[in-house]
AAA+ ATPase domain-containing protein
Amino acid sequence: METVTDRISRYLLRRIRRRAVLDLYESAAVVELLTSRFVDGSEDSGTAWSITRAAMALLTGDPAKDRAAVARALQRARPIAPSDETEMYDFSSQAEHPVIRELQDICDGEPSTAGASDEAGLADRERRLATIRLLTLLREHLPRPNAVQVAVALLVARAVGNSVDDVQALVKVLCRSSPFLSISVPVSQFERRFGMQLEEGLIIPSRCVLSDVMKGPGISGRYNEKWRSRPHRKIATLSGQEARKANELSLRRYIADVLLAADRPLVIADEAPGTALPLVARTPDLALAGQPIDRELIAELLLVCLAIAPKRSLKVMEGMKLDPTGLGLDDLALAVRPGRHVAEVIRLLGELAERNRGSVKEEDGEESWTEGLSSTGRSGAAGKGKAGALAGEVIEPEPLEVTEAEGQGTGKRLKPRPLRRPLRVEKLAGYGEARQWALDLKEDLDLWREGQLNWPEMSTKLLLSGPPGTGKTTFARALCNTLQVPLVATSVATWLEPGYLGDVLKCITATFAAASGKAPCILFIDELDNIGSRGRNTGKHYDDYWTSLINRLLELLDGAAKTEGVIVVGATNLPGNIDPALLRSGRLEKHVVIPPPDTDAMVGILVHHLGDDLAAILKSAPAAPSPRNAEKLADTLPNPIPTTPVTGSIAEQRSCPAEWCSWVIAKPLASAPSKVL
């Protein structure tokens, strides 16, 4: 009697084969061997394939010549698998194929077109027979099954067989309007590969578009835009690994929202071995539990993919003492390749499994997101912005300057004077409200450290906007030194470098996690306008990509409890391009515009950057103009440049450097050609 595992395996393998056949037919249509049409004008009702006139002229009736002609034509569209690799992939005879059987039934009957002439009926019959011959020749070029797809099918079938005694129990759950299922298979990369096969219609008889319960990507980790233009089914998914990282209350709310909406199934896929899911994720209508990769599964896989008899492969595995513990799906893709001898495949699998068991790594083969965050001084290592790599840089504050007078009588060893003056908000010029906000925050932070002020009572989120070069990044570094807390610096461009939606969302989340791990600290997000706005919906399929990014950022910014100890400073050149929701209360509610510096601000900038060199520069300056000439010069200066004449000796001018710098700045403006002004 056929077991549940066998029935599900046969069904899933046929799904894989059917997809391969359709892909082959589409390749034949590209080179004009086949033409297609929807049966009832809709893709939901199926596709009917028929031979083209060009292909009919190509077929001669000689099997050898026709086979060679079809092979040459297909080479223009796709690689051709050797003929000796296709026998085991045909699970049923060609005559049993539904398309061929239907065509044969039609050909055996009379022409169905009422009133058609005998010649038209014969032509139609000849066309149908030619279609049968062409489809038969095309099926000889089916490629070998994908080892990973076959492995996922076998793992899913085992999980079903281990969890249900009757297929009808599974069907009963699946026939509900919005079933809730979980599947746990302790094999690395299972979550992502299972999600990809759901999208491609290799698990259920429909393409799927996956959405994440927690507003992220589907478990496949890719944005499946190509399915959205075709009929598909929507499925809500949740990664078991992500569920363990989530807040229990938030996860409960997300799952409840999906179940109450009752508009799509919910599937939780988990690959973590021996670790229990949160309680809310352990309440599905049906829980499927699978097993890791073992020798029996490898033998079945080699039978389907390489036509190697199970007895032979099991004997080789026993002789080579293969221990498959730790093998992942990607390992199968590397080892199980067409044309390889069974001993070579088993040897590679053994080496990969041993390497996996000896390696200390996280699930899904990715290193820690925060592991790449380097803690540096003034110049941290730039982030790479890709999965598993650096998502920003951490800049430690420079020690504050300690003078001898401040240290006298304390009995403490004085800190060495830094080689350069630390940049501090107190010394910045031209920042207006942002400077005062920073000074107030410094006082509030001291009170918070002493327990006299709660974090929600503080203003800890700021958006700086202004033209390029106005010092928005400089302000963040100065704030780091003033508050004496670390600075986690990143940008939206760094987040977007991975490209895939799943990797981008992980990058955003990991940046906030790294900042929370260093609290109290400053999180500086540059180029914030690059994340877009949900209000600019273009109706395109990629709108969901940007909406997902904004939703994740809103979730991470929303509420002081989630960002306690983290001061968030955003910077942008185009504040009008930012989604309004990011600027609401509790998020980046404080917005300060930094204009280009005026003369007073430029004076302060020069005084700060010249530092101890200011006196030497003033000594080398030309003699000050006489009062009479200074007044004439003042009349030529445009407003609002100060017109106070600078008089007196060099010694007097050194005592008032700001006035001298004002005159130095204003003089070139006054003497410049009018077209420059």
About this structure: Residues 4-139 form one domain. The radius of gyration is 35 Å. The longest helix spans residues 4-30. The chain has five domains: 4-139, 147-289, 295-363, 370-400+419-593, 606-671.
